[in-house]
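Protein: SAF domain-containing protein
Species: Pseudoalteromonas shioyasakiensis
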Amino acid sequence: MKTKHKGATTAAMTLLLTSGMLASAIGVRQVNSEDQISAWTTNKNLSAGQVITVHDVTQIQLDKSKFPNLSLSIQNPRSLIGKKLAVNKNQQQLIFDADLVRATRKSLSEAIPAGRVLYTLKLPSLDIPLSRIHKGDRLDIVAKTQGVVRTVAADVQLIGVSKSPTSPASKSPLDTASSSSSSASNTSLVLAVLPKDVYSLAGISFEDNVSVIVHSAYDIEQGRIQKFERLQRNRKIEVVKGTKNEAVLVSK
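Structure follows.
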């Protein structure tokens, strides 16, 4: 009987010690988990000039106490992928904004979509909140002459809003592009237009009442552009007067 009780006592003590060690381990793990934080770091050595790919970064657990500047690092992987490094980075290093090559400013020609040309439309008259239109908006330009309305250019893309130059040292349209409102007489729309629309736009006179139709961003996302051809009720013909030719609009 004594041997039996002695064995039971030994088993109980062993279980107690094991439970204590397990509880201690769990407690240490919980304390450690509170000090750990998920962070995106490099998973290999990277060289300056290298473009970061999905295979170059990984999310790991880091000790917050050892990385006090962790909150300043870039932790959105979308902000890392495709960016070029300005410095060398070792494995498991954080990446900061200063470690990336800043995007260079595009030239004027690089801002023009393929198949289009840049046209600056001076506004003889316009009633539109210029502060609410932005680069990339899709527009139609409509003009009214002596009660006759015509579409001058359809599906043009806004590149910027420019104030008219006031001196020879004025900057280029993109340098002065601004979304701030100003009077129409001192403002021009910098547009990416189809080549076929250049002469129609150049034919707008100060007597014309110009309107801008802004397309819905939701329609653009769905690949739809509202068309207004069915509203056209006139066409342009050429009239010969002696030795001169004159273009006039007539109703269809």
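Remarks: The chain has a mean pLDDT of 75.
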